[in-house]
Specification:
Elements: E1 2-9, E2 20-24, E3 28-34, H1 48-62, H2 69-84, H3 88-93, E4 101-107, E5 112-116, E6 120-123, E7 126-128, H4 133-151, H5 156-161, H6 165-175, E8 202-205, E9 211-215, H7 226-239, E10 263-269
Antiparallel strand pairs: 1-10, 2-3, 3-4, 4-5, 5-8, 6-7, 6-9, 9-10
Length: 270
């Protein structure tokens, strides 16, 4: 593999808080997106998303490289489940507290991209995304609510300093984890230690000598280079900082965040 560029940064400009991760060895190249926690439990004084990311980085290093996509994701899921120990029943009943992450992996042996969840990837400038339907719905709700706030006299600067829409959508963001790995209309894929539904793994064969980008959803619109991806992100920040027009999201550049979310990007040639 020829890795051209890679980049990893926290939304709070503090690497010790970054819930995204990048992994590469002789078998795999991967981006891990630890899910922003909606619960309160801390793991070694870190968030659940950060701890999930660290466990999965370790788990990827333990794979031989010969595994199929399903074998690899089942093993990584077991790494998370093992962490629950005797409290597994509690986490089964309280999904918002689980260790959760989405991943996109390139298998060097199989010459395949494996995607589970809402990470994204690009093959020779062709973009593949997997947006969660429930996130799109809540982004619309948030957009409506903040537009109403503006009509009632709130300034964009006031809403950036303190985003009141979170009080409206957070209860649903917290409850949405009951849809994890279900076949219901708002179901979505996520590794959380309890996943037993791996039929939604996206497996994409990659032609030889392809240019590949793997990225987390911290980039609303990935481009063929890191620089172009950063420019696009900055454009959204300048033109639609609340993320209610150009790019509707469940969060914006609010409450002091440097970016929408943690972001991870790696570009390489097969």
């Amino acid at each position: 593999m020829n890795i051209i560029e890679k980049f990893l940064e926290s939304k709070f400009d503090n690497p010790n808080l970054c819930e995204d991760g990048i992994f590469h060895n002789e078998s795999f190249i991967a981006v891990i997106d630890g899910v922003t926690p909606k619960g309160v439990i801390r793991w070694n004084n870190q968030s659940s998303g950060y701890h999930a990311k660290e466990l999965l980085l370790m788990g990827l290093s333990q794979l031989s490289g010969l595994e199929t996509a399903e074998q690899a994701f089942k093993f990584l899921n077991s790494i998370l489940h093992r962490e629950y120990g005797e409290k597994a029943e509690y986490f089964l009943s309280n999904p918002e507290e689980r260790l959760q992450a989405t991943l996109v992996i390139y298998s060097i042996y199989h010459k395949q991209i494996w995607c589970f969840g809402d990470c994204q990837y690009m093959i020779n400038e062709l973009i593949f995304t997997n947006e969660m339907k429930i996130d799109a719905l809540l982004a619309e709700v948030r957009s409506v609510y903040l537009h109403l706030m503006i009509l009632e006299g709130k300034t964009i600067e006031e809403l950036l300093a303190c985003d009141p829409s979170q009080e409206i959508i957070f209860p649903l963001l917290k409850k949405q984890f009951h849809f994890s790995n279900s076949d219901l209309d708002y179901g979505f894929s996520v590794l959380d230690g309890f996943c037993n539904n791996f039929k939604n793994i996206i497996v994409h064969s990659v032609p030889e000598h392809s240019t590949i980008v793997l990225a987390s959803d911290g980039y609303p619109d990935i481009k063929s280079t890191l620089l172009l991806s950063e420019i696009e992100l900055e454009s959204i920040k300048q033109n639609d900082p609340l993320c209610i027009n150009q790019y509707k999201s469940t969060r914006g550049f609010t409450n002091g965040k440097k970016s929408l979310d943690d972001r991870a990007y790696i570009r390489f040639i097969t």
